[in-house]
């Protein structure tokens, strides 16, 4: 009976879950055994007829998972159970099954095959999310909103600028994933301790043939296992992606607060329930789910790093841990990308409330712009800063608009006209290169996508 939420299908997309189902895992192992037999025949180590028989029978159609489990219960070894079941299905040709290999040759190479499919899905999700963010950056390039630091009003930005920053974060993850793939997607056929002694004089050729047949690269050198720094790198990267999505989701959650009310995650008004007791609630539940799952993904980094350490040429301390780590990180990050892409694609944006919020500080958020205007009229930067610090405090204490306070100050009126003060207090006049940066980043992203064959 299912226990964990991945097993109950509460979390995870069907295509990613399928990659890590037990049947898929076992079939990948059978695929490796078939490729090994074929390679042995190619170099003349075993009869071609025997290899053809092994290849034909290396399928769950012929090697029943239930029978494998019966054998495993008896001999207490999963790979040996698979080998015995496959050998039985092959008749006399079964004598050549698993020739010269060790369990880790099959397990590690099968993992690489699973990860190859998983990373294709994750990269596709990242590419799709990048495109969504690119479209949003252009759509809201001119949408004025307040930028915040320390949770406080800082200076005006645009929503498109925020989306452009998010977009480039995803772009960097795409680059990291492509680079990481070269180190992670490797298999091995090196036998016990990695010397390839059991594979004979054609060992190197056999390993190359097997990996070419399976569509992955051979590890340049390995012990009895593929070294786990490769997997640790991937888990760390997936945790970084999860943390980036956590950051985006946290921002939406904050901006959805009623006292801010600028962005809202999608909500199905006709049917969706926000609370079991409070009918008015419209909770950022999906964003909260992303944030919660990010905690789980980050927690998997520690055991992934611990798995780098093994005794001598191999022990089994990493085996049990990575049966959780690898499927969970891939399934959860893929699911988080799916959720966050949908959230951003269907965000409700309240542009009017953004403009209203800018006025909450009664113009004080534009104090830097006034300071810069004063320095252009000969006032030292330090003097201008101290003057405006005092004037902003006065505006806050007296609950009066900053414009009134500025117009009453002799130093300010001596240097700036009423129009110059109005211009300085206009947030749209103090966006710097924000709009240009959006355009440049969108152009850069489009060029990268075109170079990768994307539109």
Folded structure, characterized:
The chain has 455 residues and is mainly α. The protein folds into 3 domains: 14-96, Fumarase/aspartase (N-terminal domain) (Fumarase C, Chain B, domain 1, Orthogonal Bundle); 112-357, Up-down Bundle (Fumarase C, Chain A, domain 2), CATH 1.20.200; 362-429, Fumarase/aspartase (C-terminal domain) (Ribonucleotide Reductase Protein R1, domain 1, Orthogonal Bundle), CATH 1.10.40. It contains 19 helices and 6 strands. The chain has helices at residues 14-19, 22-42, 48-57, 65-75, 78-90, 103-139, 159-184, 203-214, 229-256, 285-299, 301-306, 317-345, 351-358, 367-375, 381-398, 402-408, 410-415, 418-425, 434-451; strands at 144-149, 152-158, 186-187, 217-218, 263-264, 348-349. The strands form 3 sheets. A two-stranded antiparallel sheet has the order 1-2. The longest helix has 37 residues, at 103-139. The two termini are 44 Å apart.
Summarize this entry quickly.
With 455 residues, the protein is mainly α.
Any guess at the CATH architecture of the largest domain?
Up-down Bundle
Question: Number of domains in the coordinates?
Answer: 3
Largest sheet: 2 strands, antiparallel
* Distance between the first and last residues' Cα: 44 Å
Structural class: mainly alpha
Strand order of the largest sheet: 1-2
H/E element sequence:
HHHHHHEEHEHEHEHHHEHHHHHHH
Topology-level CATH name of the largest domain: Fumarase C, Chain A, domain 2
